[in-house]
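Okay, is this right?
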Amino acid sequence: MNMLSSQVKAFSDQLLPKIPGFKDWCEAVICAPSVLLPSTIESFKNTGIGVGAQNMSQHISGAYTGEISAGMLSELGVGYVIVGHSERRAYYYETDEMVKEKAHAALSAGLRPIVCVGESFKQREIGVTNDFVTMQVKAALTGISKEQVCKVIIAYEPIWAIGTGMTATPDDAQNVCAVIRKVLAALYDNQIAQAMTIQYGGSMNDNNAADLLAQPDIDGGLIGGASLKPESFAAIVNAANQ
């Protein structure tokens, strides 16, 4: 929940010159608060940068005051939506079932869901990270076909590393992302697992992005605070070219 609509154009004007040619080797998406989506779509029109929403309802329509449907987002021109972000799970009590329903609703509307999974510090301490993340991935993808799942992006975001400045080591992040890819192979097949995008999303910044993105099973980043600064965000995008 950052920035105002009046600030988006200035942000794009600062960012774009810093990432020349990124379209040749990198996919970049800005996920904005819902009220900023029109100005974000306009500011990044014809730039090659996609636009996504940070959340949506699992319902198609109805008496859900204040909610925004996948169809509304799609009609705006949004291509992506984050579902199950740890802050949504923690602060708004979103369950695995809700995350699954949102993923289905997004796909039905032609959106690419970015499904977030990740463990708490306590779960990490007691050694259940792999089991917990496996359960979250399986729950989110229940009922999603082989044809649909390739449109899904999985973001591993350890809760203990979000907004804390703490970051999983490249090896730790790689290990969990490798587990996620094995789950995808078991649920579908190895070809689909290799084709799918798995991101790391725990305090990735311009200082650690290159090391994290160099890992074989980390295909990208879900960037939080560092995405608010054009210089930092550009450095992360450029690190994906290494």
